[in-house]
Amino acid sequence: MLERLRELLPPPAEPVEAGRPDGWDEIEAALGTGLPGDFKAFTELYGSGMVDDFLYLFNPFAAGEDGNLLVEKDRILTGYRQTRARFPERLPLPPFPEPGGLLPLGRTDNGDELYWVTTGHPDGWPVALLESRATLQELHRMPVTGLLAALATNQLTSHILPKAVLDRPNHQFIPLG
Predict the structure, then answer these.
(1) 3-class secondary-structure state, position 130
(2) Where are the domains of the chain?
(3) Is the peptide bond before 97 cis (omega within 30 degrees of 0)?
């Protein structure tokens, strides 16, 4: 899937804060879980940046706190737990590290959140998209690179992401900085 994504959404020639193969063990130990191989390969190839200047995947190698997977995980899950306690019918999936819990993956400029659903082996984790006001959730049964490839080919079906993003004639990855 990553090779297909490279064709559709070319990576930057010089990625910003690119992942390092020798750094994943420490990241995964800090998270308490392994991570999907496609996400690790994506982070090493693309680094920090945004898809269509709209969607940002958290990067555990980001230098600052904003957008750093390890920092964002705690911030987002705190808010998720609080909202779920008040509105359990809106948020049926438990937070990570509970079995099958949601682990933050990214966000959009609209405040929508992307999560992995941590069921089974990390390479099989689907992606959940949660609307900014927690009224709508979508489950995309594909890895994150599959979701990005579907977006880049205008084949992603979503009631959360704006039509202007879903139907763009050209999609691009824009490195931060």
Answers:
(1) strand
(2) 2-175
(3) yes
For the question of whether the overall pTM of this predicted structure is more than 0.90, the answer is yes
Contact between residue 175 and residue 47 where contact means Cβ atoms under 8 Å apart: yes
First to last CA, the chain: 27
CA 134 to CA 110: how far, in whole Å? 12
Show contacts of 148-151: CB within 8 Å, 24+ apart: 148/5, 148/9, 148/42, 148/51, 149/1, 149/4, 149/5, 149/8, 149/9, 151/51, 151/52, 151/55
pLDDT one digit per residue (tens) for the chain, 177 residues: 788 999 999 999 999 999 999 999 999 999 999 999 999 999 999 999 999 999 999 999 999 999 999 999 999 999 999 999 998 988 999 999 999 999 999 999 999 999 999 999 999 999 999 998 767 899 999 999 999 999 999 999 999 999 999 999 999 999 997
Domain range 2-175, its CATH number among 2.30.30.110, 3.30.450.20, 3.40.1580.10, 3.30.1330.40: 3.40.1580.10
